[in-house]
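Hello Y.,

Per our agreement to keep a running log of every chain we model this quarter, I'm adding this entry. I've kept the format consistent with earlier entries: sequence first, then predicted structure.
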Amino acid sequence: MGKGEGAVNEGLYDVAIIGAGPAGLAAGIYCARKMLKTVVVSRDVGGQAAWSWKVENYLGYQLISGAELVNRFYEHIRSFPVELREGEEVVALETASGGGKGPFEVVSGKGRCAARAVIVASGKVPRMLGIPGEREFRGRGVVYCATCDAPLFSGKDVMVVGTGNAGLDAALQLSRIARQVYLVDTAAECTGDEVSRQGVREAANVEVMLRTALREIRGERFVGSVLLEDLESGEARELEVSGVFIEIGSEPSTSFLGGRLQLNDLGEIVIDSNNRTSLPGVFAAGDVTDVAEKQIIIAAGEGAKAALSAYDWLQGRS
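Predicted structure for the entry above:
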């Protein structure tokens, strides 16, 4: 009986993977190759990779959209005997024994599943501004994924908040669709890559508004305008827009862990070189961890590593 193995029954998986981005899907494929009974539980498939407008640094593809790359991942994992539970938001990770050891239970809004080992690959979620109107108009003009929703704003005036790479990328996408794009940031200068900054400078319908804060999102059923503050003069003004794209970064998706795993100051799961967390039998991979770089190709590799580490643990070799 391997480490972490409890009473074996038909409902017990060898590995439960939380998240179906590049890390989670790669982990699923590697678990299946090791003949582990595996389930992947996730709200959606693709994670942040699906939001990427274009990917130019994934090995084997000179240029591919994030959506297309995710479709390739999806087709790949479907060729393996992995149970994929889409549309299930994980709300808790519990230990069946209640004493901090496996087997573990992954709880979603639609049920729960038990596993001898768990790989957390839940990625990140968009960071919110926390201003009036943001939650009220989410999905009704307030957007956190330009790649997903930009086509809905064809011919309209929109605002992008944030001038890092994500904000610049969103502004460039929208400049090809929207009538006018306002790019807003409280910073004194854009912080994204020069190639993206150059693209924004050359876009005739993008207006950059630095040292400007978005204070409120207004409307009736849908977004109709925003309240801005000029941080130099203190002057406030209202600007009519139909959409607000919030691109100010993201934060690790760890709220469901309930303090069971060690996190760093950024809220990321602390792992060792073998993707082991502070709780034996629980592994982690991808952007939710403290790995230094957050890239699709790195997340996929980390997912593979986590699966191999979980296999060794289940075999009693680590």
